[in-house]
Structures are given as C-alpha cells and as structure tokens.
Write a structure and sequence with these properties.
The structure holds two protein chains of two kinds. By secondary structure, chain A is mostly beta strands. Chain A is built from no helices and eleven strands. In chain A, the strands form two sheets. In chain A, strands 2, 4, 5, 6, 9, 10 and 11 form a seven-stranded mixed sheet that branches. Chain A has a four-stranded antiparallel sheet with strand order 1-3-8-7, with no helix packed on it. Chain A is globular, with a radius of gyration of 13 Å. Chain B is built from no helices and eleven strands. In chain B, strands 2, 4, 5, 9, 10 and 11 form a six-stranded mixed sheet that branches. The termini of chain B are far apart. The relative contact order of chain B is 0.35. The chains are: A mainly beta, B mainly beta.
Chain lengths: 112, 110
Amino acid sequence: DAGVIQSPRHEVTEMGQEVTLRCKPISGHNSLFWYRQTMMRGLELLIYFNNNVPIDDSGMPEDRFSAKMPNASFSTLKIQPSEPRDSAVYFCASSEFDEKLFFGSGTQLSVL
Amino acid sequence: SQQGEEDPQALSIQEGENATMNCSYKTSINNLQWYRQNSGRGLVHLILIRSNEREKHSGRLRVTLDTSKKSSSLLITASRAADTASYFCATVNTGNQFYFGTGTSLTVIP
C-alpha cells in the first residue's frame, strides 16, 4: 500500500483565499484524523471521522474550517477564508480498528 | 487542553548513551502510544502500551506506564545518530481520540 497520501505537499496562498487540503487514507482503514502542527501549539486534533462520519469536530478552530469525508477513500479539509494565523503543517492520519495511526507527509500551508 | 506534556523539551546525548523521555497526561486513557517525527515528515508509530500494562519492550525501546501518576517514559538504549528526531507521546481515550504531547527533540551526536 502507498500509505496515507496528502495533497498538495506545499500551498502558498493569500489571505482571504479558499484553501482545500486533500487526503487519501490507507485502504481498509475505518478512522481518519486531521491534525494541525505549529511550533506554538504543537499537534492539535482538528477532527476525527469513523466510517466516514464525523465523530468529534471540537478541535476545529472556527467556522472558517470545514471537513468532509464523502467516501472511505477521500477526505478534504477546507479553510475559507484563509488567514495568516492558519499557516501550519496539516497532517492527515488513518487507522484500522482504533489502533496505531499512520500519518501522511503533511501539507505545509503558508497564508500571506 | 487534553494534550500531554513531554519532558525534557530537548535532549542531546552522545551516540551509545541511553535516552529517556517522559510524558505526563491528565485524562483517563485506553492506551498510550509513542511516535517519532523526522524533520519535515509525518509521524511514525513506535510502540503502544495499554492501560492495564506497566512495561513493554520493542527492540531498543522500552516503555513504562504508571496510570496512578498519569505518566509514561520512553527509553531508547544504545542510541544511534539515526535516532535523532522528535518523539511524541499520544494518549488515546475510550472515545478513540488521539491527543499528542508537546514532543521531545532528541539529538544524538556521533
């Protein structure tokens, strides 16, 4: 298996623009997680899906952030409108039967 | 915050020495896991210890868990330069949420 695949690897955008981050989990995994990593706040859990259903989105910072998982093989995290404080590395991770997480390589987001 | 905290924040040792990192957390857990992150990469799972276990070994890794103190430690024996990375603990609750600590940056000097 190719592992968790995230795209794009890097994203540079201007404040106010819409940003969409994409994730393909490992086939057969039933849980998917979105994390944000910054030096100041470390790794923050944004949202967690189980069997494509959002279970906990309490970590989503504000209404500008939304996440979807239309099927078992694809998820998106959207920021609209983006702000400079959203600059971070965004990771997607998947797991099977609630065991260990497999992380993607992350998306480095810079909002100017 | 449900994040754990690692201690120390940074650790620098000579190759061949042992490295010990500690993790403290606040909530009840189902299990606790340790991950490694190389610069610019995603996290990689190292070892999992369940709440009813006290110690676990995997190769050069030894993990302990004290649920009464809500703490865990990761010991890397006979360290190598390739062990240089950041190490994170993750607590997993009964709701299957994974919360990561602040990380320990380990530098192993050849």
